[in-house]
Inverse folding.
C-alpha cells in the first residue's frame, strides 16, 4: 500500500552516491514532485519513454493510485527532496496472474550512470516475493541497449520479441520482452 510506509533504503554509504538520500514508497502527497519529474523526463524525448503530454496533477494522482494493490508498488530515489529516479511494479489484477508484475524504471538525466536504476530495480526485486510476486516482466525497445543490458545484468531473461511494436520517428521498432522468476 502507498500509505507513506517505511520502505526506506539509505544510499548515503554507497561509493559515488553520497548525495543520494533514499529510496522510498510514493504517496499521494508526491503528485506535484512526480509531475515535475515527468516534465523533465518527457522533455528529453528518450527512446524508452513514450511521448505524451505532461500530466496534470489529477492525472498524476490517478497514476499513483494505480499502484495501491498489494502486489504493486511505486518507489522513488531522492536527492535533496527531489525525485531523481522512479520505478514501479504493477501487479496482475486477475487471481491467476496476481503473482506477476510489470516493471518500469526511469532515472533523471543528471543521475544516469550512477547506479540509481540498478538500486531501484534491486529494491523491487527484494520487495516482490514478500508481496506474492514471483514473476517480474519488463519490455524494452530494441533501440535502448543500455536498458536491455541492465535488465540482463539483474537476472532478466529474454522471452520474446514483439515485432514492430512501436513507431519511433517514422520507423517500426521491435520490443524486447524479458522476465525474471523468483520463489516466495
Amino acid at each position: 500500500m502507498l500509505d507513506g510506509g517505511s520502505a526506506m533504503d539509505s544510499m548515503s554509504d554507497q561509493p559515488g552516491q553520497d548525495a543520494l538520500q533514499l529510496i522510498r514508497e510514493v504517496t499521494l502527497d508526491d503528485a506535484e514532485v512526480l509531475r515535475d519529474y515527468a516534465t523533465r523526463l518527457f522533455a528529453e524525448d528518450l527512446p524508452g519513454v513514450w511521448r505524451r503530454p505532461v500530466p496534470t496533477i489529477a492525472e498524476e494522482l490517478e497514476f499513483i493510485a494505480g499502484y495501491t494493490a498489494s502486489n504493486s508498488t511505486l518507489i522513488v530515489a531522492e536527492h535533496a527532496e527531489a525525485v531523481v529516479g522512479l520505478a514501479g511494479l504493477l501487479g496482475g489484477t486477475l487471481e491467476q496472474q496476481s503473482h506477476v508484475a510489470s516493471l518500469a524504471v526511469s532515472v533523471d538525466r543528471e543521475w544516469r550512470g550512477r547506479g540509481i536504476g540498478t538500486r531501484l530495480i534491486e529494491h523491487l526485486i527484494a520487495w516482490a516475493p514478500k508481496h506474492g510476486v514471483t514473476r517480474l516482466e519488463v519490455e524494452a525497445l530494441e533501440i535502448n541497449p543500455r536498458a536491455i543490458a541492465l535488465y540482463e545484468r539483474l537476472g532478466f531473461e529474454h522471452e520474446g520479441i514483439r515485432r514492430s511494436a512501436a513507431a519511433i520517428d517514422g520507423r517500426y521498432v521491435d520490443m524486447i520482452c524479458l522476465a525474471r522468476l523468483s520463489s516466495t
